[in-house]
Amino acid sequence: MRFVSLRWDERHRATEFDAQRYLAELPALAGRLPAGARAFALDAGHYDFYGTTCVKDLTISAALADPGANGSLKIRFEPNRWKHDSGLTIEYENVTGLSFSTDSTPDLLGAVLLDEILPTDTGCSHEIALRHGSVTVECGDLTAKWG
Length: 147
Hints:
Blueprint: E1 5-9, E2 14-18, H1 20-30, H2 35-42, E3 59-66, E4 72-78, E5 88-93, E6 97-102, E7 112-120, E8 123-130, E9 133-139, E10 141-146
Antiparallel strand pairs: 1-2, 3-4, 4-5, 5-10, 6-9, 7-8, 8-9
Protein backbone atom coordinates (compact mmCIF):
# COMPACT_ATOMS: atom_id res chain seq x y z
CA MET A 1 0.00 0.00 0.00
CA ARG A 2 1.17 3.48 -0.77
CA PHE A 3 -0.25 5.46 2.17
CA VAL A 4 -1.84 2.97 4.59
CA SER A 5 0.73 1.57 6.99
CA LEU A 6 0.64 -2.09 8.04
CA ARG A 7 3.37 -3.51 10.23
CA TRP A 8 3.74 -6.75 12.18
CA ASP A 9 4.52 -6.12 15.86
CA GLU A 10 6.42 -9.18 17.07
CA ARG A 11 6.22 -8.10 20.70
CA HIS A 12 2.40 -7.97 20.70
CA ARG A 13 2.06 -10.60 17.97
CA ALA A 14 -0.38 -8.45 16.07
CA THR A 15 -0.53 -6.28 12.98
CA GLU A 16 -0.38 -2.57 13.65
CA PHE A 17 -2.17 -0.45 11.09
CA ASP A 18 -2.58 3.23 10.49
CA ALA A 19 -4.74 4.88 7.83
CA GLN A 20 -4.07 8.49 8.92
CA ARG A 21 -1.64 9.25 6.09
CA TYR A 22 -4.12 7.92 3.51
CA LEU A 23 -6.99 9.86 5.07
CA ALA A 24 -4.87 13.02 4.96
CA GLU A 25 -4.16 12.46 1.23
CA LEU A 26 -7.69 11.37 0.32
CA PRO A 27 -9.17 14.86 -0.22
CA ALA A 28 -6.49 15.55 -2.86
CA LEU A 29 -6.91 12.11 -4.45
CA ALA A 30 -10.73 12.07 -4.42
CA GLY A 31 -11.16 14.38 -7.41
CA ARG A 32 -9.18 11.94 -9.57
CA LEU A 33 -11.18 8.86 -8.49
CA PRO A 34 -14.14 7.61 -10.56
CA ALA A 35 -17.55 8.36 -9.00
CA GLY A 36 -18.23 4.97 -7.38
CA ALA A 37 -14.72 4.58 -6.00
CA ARG A 38 -14.82 8.14 -4.67
CA ALA A 39 -18.14 7.57 -2.90
CA PHE A 40 -16.85 4.37 -1.27
CA ALA A 41 -13.49 5.84 -0.24
CA LEU A 42 -15.06 8.99 1.21
CA ASP A 43 -17.87 7.20 3.07
CA ALA A 44 -17.78 8.44 6.68
CA GLY A 45 -17.87 4.91 8.10
CA HIS A 46 -15.20 3.41 5.85
CA TYR A 47 -12.38 3.84 8.40
CA ASP A 48 -14.49 4.17 11.57
CA PHE A 49 -13.24 1.04 13.34
CA TYR A 50 -16.25 1.08 15.67
CA GLY A 51 -18.79 1.65 12.89
CA THR A 52 -20.94 -0.94 11.16
CA THR A 53 -19.75 0.09 7.66
CA CYS A 54 -16.02 -0.14 8.30
CA VAL A 55 -14.25 -2.61 6.02
CA LYS A 56 -12.00 -3.87 8.82
CA ASP A 57 -12.85 -7.41 9.94
CA LEU A 58 -14.95 -8.37 6.90
CA THR A 59 -14.04 -11.71 5.26
CA ILE A 60 -14.18 -12.65 1.58
CA SER A 61 -16.87 -15.23 0.95
CA ALA A 62 -17.03 -15.26 -2.85
CA ALA A 63 -15.49 -13.79 -5.97
CA LEU A 64 -17.24 -14.01 -9.32
CA ALA A 65 -15.61 -12.91 -12.57
CA ASP A 66 -17.36 -12.19 -15.87
CA PRO A 67 -14.72 -11.75 -18.58
CA GLY A 68 -17.38 -10.50 -21.01
CA ALA A 69 -17.57 -7.06 -22.58
CA ASN A 70 -17.07 -5.02 -19.42
CA GLY A 71 -14.67 -7.41 -17.65
CA SER A 72 -16.56 -7.33 -14.38
CA LEU A 73 -15.62 -8.83 -11.02
CA LYS A 74 -17.78 -9.09 -7.93
CA ILE A 75 -16.37 -9.76 -4.47
CA ARG A 76 -18.72 -10.56 -1.61
CA PHE A 77 -17.58 -9.91 1.96
CA GLU A 78 -19.24 -11.52 4.94
CA PRO A 79 -19.82 -9.43 8.05
CA ASN A 80 -18.11 -9.95 11.37
CA ARG A 81 -21.06 -10.86 13.58
CA TRP A 82 -19.74 -8.76 16.46
CA LYS A 83 -19.38 -5.60 14.38
CA HIS A 84 -21.31 -5.40 11.12
CA ASP A 85 -25.05 -5.28 10.51
CA SER A 86 -24.61 -6.75 7.02
CA GLY A 87 -22.08 -7.84 4.46
CA LEU A 88 -20.57 -5.85 1.61
CA THR A 89 -20.52 -6.51 -2.12
CA ILE A 90 -18.08 -4.68 -4.35
CA GLU A 91 -18.64 -4.80 -8.11
CA TYR A 92 -15.69 -3.80 -10.27
CA GLU A 93 -16.22 -2.83 -13.90
CA ASN A 94 -13.72 -2.78 -16.74
CA VAL A 95 -11.21 -4.82 -14.78
CA THR A 96 -7.72 -4.51 -16.24
CA GLY A 97 -5.73 -6.20 -13.50
CA LEU A 98 -6.23 -8.64 -10.66
CA SER A 99 -3.63 -10.02 -8.31
CA PHE A 100 -3.51 -11.66 -4.95
CA SER A 101 -0.85 -12.83 -2.62
CA THR A 102 -1.07 -15.09 0.36
CA ASP A 103 1.18 -16.33 3.10
CA SER A 104 -1.02 -19.43 3.49
CA THR A 105 -3.48 -21.34 1.32
CA PRO A 106 -5.86 -19.12 -0.72
CA ASP A 107 -8.91 -20.23 1.30
CA LEU A 108 -7.32 -18.87 4.50
CA LEU A 109 -6.83 -15.22 3.57
CA GLY A 110 -8.45 -14.14 6.81
CA ALA A 111 -10.21 -10.93 7.72
CA VAL A 112 -9.74 -7.55 6.07
CA LEU A 113 -7.24 -5.34 7.87
CA LEU A 114 -7.60 -2.20 5.73
CA ASP A 115 -7.90 -1.13 2.13
CA GLU A 116 -6.70 1.70 -0.08
CA ILE A 117 -8.27 3.09 -3.24
CA LEU A 118 -6.03 5.13 -5.53
CA PRO A 119 -6.62 6.82 -8.89
CA THR A 120 -4.97 5.38 -12.01
CA ASP A 121 -4.83 6.53 -15.63
CA THR A 122 -7.74 4.22 -16.49
CA GLY A 123 -9.82 4.45 -13.30
CA CYS A 124 -8.64 3.21 -9.94
CA SER A 125 -6.84 0.50 -8.04
CA HIS A 126 -8.28 -1.08 -4.92
CA GLU A 127 -5.84 -2.88 -2.65
CA ILE A 128 -7.29 -4.92 0.19
CA ALA A 129 -4.92 -6.07 2.91
CA LEU A 130 -6.05 -9.26 4.62
CA ARG A 131 -4.66 -11.00 7.67
CA HIS A 132 -2.90 -13.62 5.49
CA GLY A 133 -2.54 -11.90 2.14
CA SER A 134 -3.85 -9.20 -0.14
CA VAL A 135 -6.03 -8.64 -3.19
CA THR A 136 -5.53 -5.82 -5.70
CA VAL A 137 -8.03 -4.96 -8.43
CA GLU A 138 -7.37 -2.40 -11.16
CA CYS A 139 -10.56 -1.24 -12.83
CA GLY A 140 -12.51 1.54 -14.49
CA ASP A 141 -14.71 2.03 -11.40
CA LEU A 142 -16.32 0.14 -8.56
CA THR A 143 -19.64 0.10 -6.77
CA ALA A 144 -19.85 -0.86 -3.10
CA LYS A 145 -23.18 -1.93 -1.57
CA TRP A 146 -23.84 -2.89 2.04
CA GLY A 147 -26.65 -5.34 2.66
